[in-house]
Amino acid sequence: ERTTRLVAGRQDAELLLLDGADPAALRAELGPLLDLVPRLAQAELADLAGTLAERLSGAPVRAAVVATSPDDAARALERLAALLDSGAREAFSAAEGVFLGRARTAPRIVYLFPGQGSGHGAVGAIRRRFATAEEVFGAAGPPAGADQVATEVAQPRIVTGSLAALRVLDGLGIRAGAAVGHSLGELTALHWAGAMSEEQLVRLATVRGRVMARASLGGGAMAGLAATPERTARLSDGSDVVVAGYNGPRQTVVSGPAGAVDEVCRRAAAEGVTATRLRVSHAFHS
């Protein structure tokens, strides 16, 4: 039944997995594929992905290619071969769909659940691909056809998306050892830890969104800057924005009136710093 449901789902891309005892062994695995893949039909790419997955031996040198078509796969495999030929031992290129590395320790999985500002409000690939994800959305009944950025709409939809992803991962036998969340995502992490049911989580996110919408005058905005907190503080000097999140050593989030946030983004751009307005309806964490 599980296989039938997987086959019935709409697939956006295939994952080609390879491993070898050392880089030379992995490179040898690539040779036949470089000849084969350009001749494949679209449907045969899925067959190849399944065959390669079954052939995995657990060897330490590992590579993955994400491809949407045989031509796409051929380009990515050629890139992987070039990396190995150049002596590269690690690669992580989402744009090219090429990943290379060595397994040094047993894998440890941690879930990071998203908050507002994540996603684009559209139906995600996981929902198109897996019927079980669509079942979660059907049961939760999040708002549809409304402003996807509005906090009273975004919050229940975001947690529903996380619940759908959890259901799919669980069905695939993937388990995490810990979970954390960004803002709203902390509620999803609490659900994962057993503090509340799926129904309770969606209901809480719905009420939370409505209360936050009523409690704010609106007109706020947020932006993520690819900069240290110190540089972000300098770029924000004299403005009405505040630092709303320290996401990483060079990933800082600011929050405040929309005009002030836009001004900080302009200052950042003038200095060559990437600044991205988040898809949120309020100046959260300000």
TrEMBL record:
Transmembrane segments: none
GO CC, one annotated term: cytoplasm
Domain Malonyl-CoA:ACP transacylase (MAT), first and last residues per copy: 112-286
Pfam families documented for this protein: Acyl_transf_1 (PF00698)
SMART domains according to UniProt: PKS_AT
Single Gene Ontology BP annotation: DIM/DIP cell wall layer assembly
InterPro entries to which the protein is assigned, alphabetical: Ac_transferase_dom_sf (IPR001227), Acyl_transferase_dom (IPR014043), Acyl_Trfase/lysoPLipase (IPR016035), Malonyl_transacylase_ACP-bd (IPR016036), PKS_NRPS_Biosynth_Enz (IPR050091)
The keyword Metal-binding is annotated on this UniProt entry: no
Key word Phosphoprotein present: yes
Superkingdom per UniProt: Bacteria
One Gene Ontology MF term: fatty acid synthase activity
Record's keyword terms, sorted: Phosphopantetheine, Phosphoprotein
Gene3D superfamilies found in the cross-reference section: Malonyl-Coenzyme A Acyl Carrier Protein, domain 2 (3.40.366.10)
Protein name: PksE
Species assigned in the record: Kitasatospora sp. CB02056
